[in-house]
Design a protein that fits this description.
Blueprint (H helix, E strand, L loop, with lengths): L2 H10 L4 E4 L9 H14 L9 H4 L4 H12 L5 H16 L8 H10 L3 E5 L4 H8 L11 E2 L12 H10 L6 E5 L2 H9 L3 E5 L6 H5 L5 E2 L2 H14 L4
Parallel strand pairs: 1-2, 1-4, 2-3, 4-5, 5-6
């Protein structure tokens, strides 16, 4: 076992709850969202470069609008962009694939008797549409959204809201995230973040937010399973 694995296991102990990010973590929606955003902007007469994907990964809608302005000089009416985006994203979400290992990870956490929930920067309607095609997602009825709070990730609000509603202390929870934006939100809320670097280029950004970074959901499952077993009450 590597020193990183030992550190994760030592700090995680047996969690009171596991909080899953959705977009990009359990379901591979990030490329779909980016292409839908580019298409919506093109409809409004703007061109968003392909390199912009890294700049808006994990941000909520309001933050994306601001990042478009501040970084790319694209000034757009939020309502117009929202309407254009809505027309293209819903059909795309039906095509989104679950990340390899997502079903197994969720199933293991539930079978271990842990509280689990979705904590997402997406609106509730999008969460429902994204998870609907995936049978395993029915086991995740607790869903907390950017709709529920004033500020989305990277602010800690949605994690603080989720832990309050679940009745658990943030420090006793584990968040599973795939973006630096989400990891920053979890850590700011006092939640231990286990981040998954699906893309090699994302690892450095994730490691700036949390020391707990793995390369796949299978690896995340392995660490969580060992943590739960090692710290199971007698």
């Amino acid at each position: 076992m590597s020193s990183t694995e030992r550190d994760v296991l030592a700090r995680l102990e047996r969690p009171a709850a596991v909080l899953f990010d959705m977009d990009g973590t359990l379901v591979d929606t990030e490329p779909l969202w980016f292409e839908a955003t580019r298409e919506a902007l093109a409809h409004l007469g703007h061109r968003l470069p392909a390199a912009a994907a890294a700049e808006i990964l994990g941000l909520d809608f309001a933050a994306i609008v601001e990042r478009l302005r501040s970084t790319f000089g694209i000034v757009v009416d939020p309502r117009a962009l929202g309407e254009a985006l809505g027309e293209v994203i819903e059909p795309a979400l039906a095509r989104a694939s679950a990340r390899p290992g997502a079903a197994e990870l969720v199933e293991h956490v539930i079978q271990a008797g842990l509280v689990c929930a979705i904590v997402s920067n997406s609106p509730h309607a999008v969460i429902t549409a994204t998870l609907a095609p995936h049978g395993w997602a029915a086991a995740l009825p607790r869903r907390y959204s950017v709709d529920d709070v004033a500020l989305g990730k990277p602010a800690p609000d949605v994690y603080l809201h989720a832990t309050k509603r679940l009745g658990v202390e943030p420090g006793l929870c584990i968040a599973v995230e795939d973006s630096a934006t989400g990891a920053r939100a979890a850590v700011a809320a006092g939640v231990t973040c286990l981040a998954v670097a699906f893309e090699l280029g994302h690892r450095n950004a994730l490691e700036r937010e949390t020391p707990h970074v793995v390369d796949s959901l299978a690896e995340a499952l392995d660490l969580l399973a060992r943590s739960i077993t090692m710290n199971r009450p007698a």
